[in-house]
Write a structure and sequence with these properties.
Two copies of one chain form a homodimer. Chain A is an alpha+beta fold. Chain A has two domains: about 40-155, 2-Layer Sandwich (60s Ribosomal Protein L30, Chain: A), CATH 3.30.1330; about 170-325, PurM-like C-terminal domain (Phosphoribosyl-aminoimidazole Synthetase, Chain A, domain 2). In chain A, about 30% of the residues lie in helices and about 25% in strands. Chain A contains nine helices and 14 strands. In chain A, the strands form three sheets. Chain A has a seven-stranded mixed beta sheet. In chain A, strands 1-2-7-5-6 form a five-stranded mixed beta sheet, with helices on one face. In chain A, α6 crosses α9. Chain A is globular and about 55 Å long. At the A-B interface, α1, β1, β2, β5 and α4 of A face α1, β1, β2, β5 and α4 of B.
Chain lengths: ~350, ~350
């Protein structure tokens, strides 16, 4: 019998990733906190509610329009904390570097990390460096882990348990920008020059929104697997459905063009500066307006709602009036985008 | 002019590692917590003292006598927390996996991590998986980060600021076992069959010692760079010296043989289950006896002391009565041992 092996799709954030997590990691590491499978684990230390998260970054290439692996590594972990409702505070940084990697490039990446951390108001407080022989890793991988503080009113944000029929889905701008920026950097396509990664720390925008609304029911950053993966995860085994209105989805012209040309479905293309919020219907307009005042939310839009119909299903109401089920991504659409 | 590039020595834990940390990471990420350069960053969240640390593991081979990369990844981070005086509580686990890696091997490693975490009383609560194309990493890298709790009486343990002349150096057993176990696994040397890695979680042993003594002044686990690197770091810019008594250093026969044969200095060979403690002179015997009662401290020994003479220097009193300065490791003795 042939040995079962790891496929690229196991790192896609889609169905194979879930199979690996459920079948292996969750099975052996089993505990209540891990079982939440949210962006951050949330636990008590003494009287404090603490959020804790980790992410490894293997993006290829290291430098891309709109950022580099360092910016991604800080923003990714800051965002995982922020969408769990926490105030991000402290980060770690672990570097795995290929022998022969240019020190100038490393310096530029470290400088970007420092700037991004300062902008987000977090401190990088502990680190680790490993060097492997030439050919044993691809230039540079970075792990960032992060710790944040939660107030008790935000405890259930990550779980989605507060979601109710009639809640609205709001996203802070266009989809697919990060994935297509990586694609353009990788292939040097001429059409792609205008597309920039949306990579950014969202804790400021999220904090603004909390200042005007007490009915934020759920947040998640739409990274690997894109918006499509979040909504399909969110309805799994739930007694509500999700309708996403295609007409309301913002798409940069360059992203749209690249997706059409290359055959990508933008719903599944990665973002690195987009948060999907589920907000009580009565507060949706207020949240939208607050978001639109933030530099990272100018193109924010209400893109859909929580429905009583079709429980356990997410579907796209297409521009031409049809309906398409949004399934979990199977296989790997675009490897190493983060 | 030729570009400056990363060398294997930058990951050795010795002089080049320090140069990279001081000249790059500490310079850009600069903050009070990072400046402590201890095994864990220690900060307050609300009223709680929290320790936070990270480590990436790139050991080659993945399986070795006495353990595997998973055991190492859990023990390494548990120990970094424990030597800072913290009670290790929660770990993250980030996997970077090469496409094609056998699922059976991954399962064995994950199983070991779960067992080791259970033994140490910590929970793995959050994780991340990335898969890179075949040839873009060497089988499997694991990052673990960890969070622990500190009582206020243990706050200054990591800094070494409490150390005084007359304090004793105690280690919980023989040196060089992990490094030589890796070496034997790598080269399939026949002489090496008896050498096992000492890889183990030390939080239980450390907790035992704290139960009998209030004069533990400093602890560090002697990993990359070995015992020699710790003592040479510890005296840097200090007004005391350190004498290590070669006669008191325990060495497994197999380790001694391999070091002689292969030309390694055991002082700089990695351990993964050894903690060096600096303990007030009056408590040293009590601490030693307590350690010796623990399964991981049977061969514990008082191996040296803090001296008024030769401030800023660490030296080895050799078996034949000579003196040798213990300098920081320059270059790379043995890559990818952790």
């Amino acid at each position: 019998m042939q040995k079962k092996r790891i496929l690229l799709g196991h790192g896609s954030g889609g169905k194979l990733s879930h199979d690996l997590i459920d079948g292996l990691f969750a099975r052996y590491f089993d505990n209540d906190l891990l079982r939440q499978q949210s962006d951050s684990a949330v636990f008590k230390l003494g009287a404090e509610n603490v959020a804790f998260t980790t992410d490894s970054f293997v993006v290829d290439p290291l430098f891309f329009p709109g950022g580099n692996i360092g910016k991604l590594a800080v923003a990714g972990t800051v965002n995982d904390l922020a969408v769990s409702g926490a105030i991000p505070k402290y980060l770690s940084a672990g570097f795995i570097i290929e022998e022969g990697f240019p020190l100038d490039d490393l310096e530029q990446i470290v400088k970007t990390m420092a700037e991004e951390a300062a902008n987000a108001g977090v401190l990088i407080v502990t680190g680790d460096t490993k060097v492997v022989d030439k050919g044993k890793c691809d230039k540079l991988f970075i792990n960032t882990s992060g710790v944040g503080e939660l107030t008790s009113d935000r405890l259930a944000i990550g779980s989605g348990n507060k979601i109710e029929v009639g809640d609205k889905l709001i996203i802070n701008g266009g989809i697919g920008e990060h994935g297509m920026a990586i694609m353009s950097a990788r292939n040097d396509l001429k059409i792609s020059t205008s597309v920039q990664s949306d990579c950014a720390c969202l804790n400021g925008l999220i904090s603004d929104v909390f200042s005007v609304s007490t009915s934020i029911k759920f947040m998640r950053d739409a990274t690997r697997g894109g918006l499509g993966t979040i909504v399909s995860e969110l309805v799994k085994n739930k007694d509500f459905g999700i309708q996403v209105d295609e007409e309301k989805l913002v798409q940069d012209e360059g992203v749209r063009g690249m997706c059409e040309l290359l055959g990508f479905d933008p719903l599944y293309v990665a973002n690195e500066g987009k948060v999907l919020m589920v907000v009580g219907g009565h507060d949706a307009q207020k949240v939208l307006e607050k978001m639109q005042k933030h530099p990272l939310g100018k193109k924010a839009a209400i893109i859909g709602e929580i429905t009583q119909t079709n429980p356990g299903m997410a579907w796209l109401k297409t521009v031409i009036g049809g309906k398409r089920i949004i399934e979990m991504l199977s296989g790997q659409q675009l490897p190493r985008i983060c």
